[in-house]
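Weekly modeling sync, notes
Attendees: S.R. (lead), two postdocs, one rotation student

Agenda item 3: backlog of single-chain predictions. S.R. asked that every request posted to the team notebook include the full sequence so nobody has to chase files. The rotation student volunteered to paste the first one in as an example of the format we agreed on. Action items at the bottom.

Example entry:
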Amino acid sequence: MHINSRLLESVLSLSILNVLNMVLPLATLPYMIKVIGMENYGVYSIVYALIQYMLLLSSYGFNLSVTRQIAQNRDNHVVVNGIVNATLGAKIILMVIAFVIFISVAILLFSWTHVFMLILGLGVVMGDAMNPIWLFQGMEKMKYMTMVNITCKTIFTILIFVCIKHESDYVKIPLLNSAGYLFSGIISLLIAYRVFKISITIPKLNDVIFQLKAGWYIFLSTVCMELYRNSNVFVLGLFTSNTMVGIYAGAEKVVKAAQSVASPISNALFPHLANNFKDNTISANVYKLKRVSLIMSLFLISILLIVLLLATPINNILLSAAEPQAIVLIRMMTPVILFGGLNYILGIVGLVNLGFQRYFLKYVFIAGIMSIGFLIVAVNLLGVVAASIAMCLSELILFICCTLKLFTLFK
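Predicted structure, as returned to the notebook:
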């Protein structure tokens, strides 16, 4: 298959998957808030944030580091098979560590309701650990993952409407999440076995260690990035009420959904350019990246303006007309759509693929520290508004750092 056909297939598959990931959660959001109430939705949001932290540790940045390895070795079945087994072994080890750490954190900082819901949600991490999405993305065969996700997420959405009938049913939501992820992980492994002839074996310890070392800087970058992107809900949960957490989490979900409209293109470009960059000079690659960024900027700005203008009806339909504060938060966070989208292109697709992941780690760390530091200082004074400002501040700082570095490389 010609490389441009591979790219087109990946973009189309990821676009369908992205629409699904965006539409289905937003379809269930107003129903959940109506049935379980904003306060209970806030409790669920805190548990969901803890689950995201566990996913962050167990994923270890493999979605980038391993995707790049597979993209560059896709024609060597023996190498690919070894990469898959070593990565799965590493993810299982990291999953166990994540369980111990974050269940302990929940016991120390939150109520037993939070702990119980977190335990019900552990299947999310298990399912993700066995899901070799990085294999499909590196091979640029995302159509299989699209079919699996359509099935799993549709079933999950139906179960939300079937199983969540009363206010007390909010504790069941993590269990439904777990069922969807576990089913997706098992089916994905079976497809990998059938399509790519992957044989699952116990990996050598040296191979597991190699994957951990190969993904180390990307993992640290991802940790810092996700910390400042997901810590807002966690910090608000410590300093404000569950209701305030629910309002902010709903507004943030709207903005992230809008931002994700461009992610199919960004995600498809990563393995495509990983294979392409090795044949060109750094200056030529940066020039190509500049052209891509300009086109993406126009696309992202159009999305930003749509959300900015339609914030009120979006809030009334998806969240609650009784919570006008969410409208302000949505509008305040719209710059994240532009800068967050460009940061993926400049930082992940650009700096990481060019071999400058250490610089990207440094920039993400700076942005994350400044964001979290600002939020902790300002949350008692500004409340949920502080979280919105912190989100925008972090993305702007990261954008400036990545742009300046690429400018020096182009010269």
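Discussion: group reviewed the output briefly. Residues 240-411 form one domain.
Action items: rotation student to repeat for the remaining queue; S.R. to check formatting next week.
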